[in-house]
Amino acid sequence: MNSILGYGLVLTGLLCAAFAAVVGIVTGLARKESALPWVQRGIYGFAASMILSNLVMIESLLTHDFSVKYVAQVGSRTTPLIFTIVSLWSALEGSILFWGAIMGTYLFAFAFTYRKEHGRYMQLSLGVMAAVATFFAFLIAGPANPWTAIPNPLSDGPGPNPLLQNHPLMIIHPPMLYLGYVGMTIPFGIAAGALLRGELGDAWLVPLRKWTLVPWLFLSVGIILGSWWAYAVLGWGGYWAWDPVENASFMPWLTATAFMHSTMVLEKKKSLKLWTIALALASFVLTIIGTFMTRSGVFNSVHSFTQSDIGPTFLVFIGVLLVFSALLLASRGHMLVAESRLGSIASREGSILLNNVVFTVLTFVVLLGTLYPLITEGLFDKKVTVGEPYFNQMALPLGLAMLFLMGVGPMLPWGSADPKVTQQQAIIPGAVGVVTGLLSWLFGYTSFLAIMTFGVAGFVVVVTLRELFLPARQRMNENKESFMNALVVSATRANRRFGGYIVHLGIVAIVVAVAASSSGKVHATGTLKPGGEMQVGQYKVRFNRLEEGDDFSNRVRTIKVGQLQTGMRLTSAWKGLAAGTVLTRENLMTAFQGASASEDVSIEEPYRHYIAATLTVIDPSGAETPFTARNSPRMNFYARSTDPIGSPTVDERIIRDVYVSLLAYDQRTGTASFNMWVFPLVGWIWYAIPILVLGTLIALFPQRKKTATTSPAPAPADGVPS
């Protein structure tokens, strides 16, 4: 029944999306605005169908309806409740179904938000978005159908991939990335609509900017959470390896960030119109390429799904998108002419243009390094590996250049700069940058690139903080206001500017954390007996002992006595055994005597077995931090996996992490082998998430209108920089 209902909803969504696409594009080109309500109804129907289909799938997972193909693939009665729900996006078919629900939500939100305004603009945009939705609905209905019915289902399933249920970050990392990927459909539709009409006024620009900023935020958070997941789960002592799927999320982030910089020039100088639109189109195309990388199986990656049949379909769609975008830019681009010339390079718009060039070059570098092995294997049948050395050598200098421009741009005015004024403004930030670089060298950092990064970061922080608080200081002087009141008023008067600089501070925190943790890390490896210690940097790690046990799913089941097995845990007292007792062969045989095989017993089942190396981390001061078996480095054994899944432990502090991974163990002797690292400041990569979220939300907040009684903030209302 669930298979029929779920698939029927998918087909309904496909029909609604196709209807909205055809009506929206055809009537939009004919400029028949009276058809807009029908396009909106099609969008609403698509959204409702996809969301309901996802809810039916969640119900199928929770009730263990193994007659549904996808449930039989990823479901299990022993999987914990939360991982049962998130298994919706743990495999290919479910992730595409979930993708459809997110797309439906985005399209509904956009159509509903502009249901009474911008009629002549929204019709074409909604039509293009609906065309994209039609493609994904077709995928769900065809090559990636999760609703195939199984005539004779088994009583249980294998559960989701063990690697994807080994850490809570699995719950939020993929949805954040999907919200970023799918959300790029909205600016793509707006940009395509603008090109189809051959105009780009404020009615297009405002929603284009805002609806890019939303998925940009989700993509930023998703990328950072992904690095955190790799760090906390995989046990290799890193968080970024230039993996093809990591690169797939990074490339649209780069172009979307460049786009948001470019909109500032477009809004202020009425220039870079075609370039801005091209960036919006490119961001979406790169998300589709990234989706292809993740789901086609052509790349060998820990993040990617297994080999699937949707690769050729995605390739066709990518080809259609590239041709469609190129034709639009070629045929309509001449209508988007600049209304004014850019100033010199030594100006705000000049620095933004340079910034865009760097972003574009870096995107090309990452794209080339990611696709080159695939191209050489496909064309020449030759396997080539492009690893970290290439990416680090090419990307890190470009990243440093972007960081530098992040500080230079805000110092420069629009139009042309007075060299003397610019030099005066650069004295204090430059001095702080030099001192910061020297201090990093004195603290033991020897890498030239790391020292330069710290120095440039100090320069950028001073410039950013000065520009952030400058309007408040001016209000305090002119209106005699308190600092807090002046800060709040100036922030609300120019919220995009204020939020953008907060985002800048978050980006600087990430860059500094990456530089410090990569160049200042200390590594040690070795084998310890119980009670033995290992030195790693200024810290010691004491190995206490090996502990063995089970993790339970907390899913209570009622079964017959005749079905009891060792390893199950009682949830209520039975035959003299207390609640919470884990059944062994001995207590099971004892309690079995005289019991009816048909008697009901309430139990929980383990979903994994573990062997943990409990340890204690000792600070240079002698303070000890003990770790229990629950949060010590361990090996987790799942029924579905023949190999154990390692899980490291991290003694996390604001200024450093002590990271310990279990390599091997010997239960006979009680010894264990470890990999250990000390990473300075690495936590600031993930601590930056609240800063990015705060800055973006401030920038998205509706701008407060000025009143005649209040002096306007003197600074320009810039957009959100990277």
What does this structure look like?
Helices cover 58% and strands 12% of the residues. Strand 2 (533-536) and strand 3 (539-552) form a beta hairpin. It has 722 residues and is of the alpha+beta class. It is built from 20 helices and 13 strands. Among the domains are: 1-160, Four Helix Bundle (Hemerythrin (Met), subunit A) (Up-down Bundle), CATH 1.20.120; 526-678, no CATH class. 48% of the residues are buried.
Summary of the model, kept short:
By secondary structure, this protein is α+β, with helices and mostly antiparallel strands. The protein has helices at residues 2-29, 36-62, 69-74, 81-86, 92-113, 119-141, 169-183, 185-197, 202-233, 244-269, 273-295, 311-332, 348-380, 388-411, 419-442, 448-479, 483-493, 495-519, 585-592, 684-700; strands at residues 522-528, 533-536, 539-552, 557-560, 569-570, 600-604, 606-618, 624-627, 634-637, 645-647, 649-652, 656-666, 671-680.
Question: Which descriptors apply to this entry?
Answer:
six-stranded antiparallel beta sheet; 13 strands; four-stranded antiparallel beta sheet; Four Helix Bundle (Hemerythrin (Met), subunit A); 12% strand; 20 helices; globular; 722 residues; alpha+beta; single chain; 58% helix
